Amino acid sequence: MLFHTAEFFFLLIITFICYYLFRNARLVILSVANCLFYAAASWGFLGLFLGMSFTSYLIARRIPKGQSRFWLTIGIILNVANLAFFKYSMFIIQNLEAVTGLTLVAKDGFWAHIVLPIGISFYTFQLIAYLTDVYKGRIEPTDSYLRFWVFIAFFPHQLAGPIMRGHEFMPQVERTHKLTLTPTEFKYGVYLILWGLAKKILIADQVSPIVDEYFKNPADLTMAQAWTGAYLFGFQIYADFSAYSDMAVGLGYLFGYRLPLNFLSPYISANATEFWRRWHITLSSWIRDYIYIPLGGSRKGRLRKDVNLLAAMLISGLWHGAMWTFVIWGFLHGMLLIIHKWYADGLKKLLDALPSPGKAVSRIIAVLYRIIAVVLFFHITTVTWVFFRAESVQDAFDYITAMFDPAGWANFVQQISSQAFYLQIVLVLYAAHLLEYIVRRNEEGIAAWWHRLVPSPVRGIVYALLVFVVIAMIKGEKHDFIYFQF
Question: InterPro entries from the xrefs (predicted)?
């Protein structure tokens, strides 16, 4: 069930009304809504989700009672095995066939008909985090499966995050019957939902068919076409994924829950480290806490730190999809993180050795450096997105070859002219990205200005128009959220 459909808004309105009418039955109401939301995709996969969550719930309750490491291991193995079976089994078989030259499974046999349950990567990571946190004593295991199901399957974040932690969300779930909703919180939640809807429908869904055309035959692209398509995909995936996250956070507000921020204008990043503090923040922190640090983090020397970092990003890439393109994408970002940390250390030593140029000059240098670094890293990120979007490794390399084709400079002006319209769209999208950053940083001030200077009848008319706009938007053609496939 997509967030931008009439069916979803019907479910939302019914759930919202019942939630506030029947305070003592809130957990039951949310549990039913969670099941209906997921069952819209597949009743069978709902059964799988319920089974894995109930098994993890039982294992978590066993962990503090003895043999805790054993039960943690069992829980992690079961969850990883479930994810691996549905997401990676065919990938492994295909690669074994390619290496051995043998036909291991029939092309139309059982393995070829495995369907990936939507949201499985997200709920698997949440279950593993919950088990690990119980094992480490960060949280106490809940004694109610009803509360646990609401925690793990709360429908706004169920399919594509944010990835929730037990210490963040479970205490809120336990206070569900006490949660209240103020008019300010209601308006803020609706504001985030509308913000997400606008990004999804007005940007991501409009750009999607254009991007498809660019990536259809990458070997035939000119240099300007290749860069234009890559630029547009970067904004498509950001608008698509951040739209879901914004709507999830906004929906959480409507029920009194606070979900964590998942994006913070990543395309203003000056380096890879900053990018991963702004892009898919809950995944970045999950990778850090449950993969990078357990591998040793930075505690065992510089070389081991780099190896751990690269391993963590390779796993991050593979988590996104069972294709070598995603592995390469994770590898590239791992290398970018390593290179930046080496570069930052070297630059600090160099600056410490040089005389200070004075505050005024230092500020000018810092601003210029920041601008150059942001522009440069934006283009580096654009190149890495090719591996994320391409249908195969060969397509990705064909696409990047076109991006860096030396022959493209011979008629550079003509090529740019042929892409002028879409390049102007790219500039508008980047300006909107900056505007979003400014607005999100100044939300309280803008809200105060809005209520102080705009008369209430005018505000009412604007709100009514927004409702009509939403109705019009959800009537159009629908595109799945990109991260539903992960």
Answer: Ac/AlaTfrase_AlgI/DltB, AlgI, MB_O-acyltransferase, MBOAT_fam
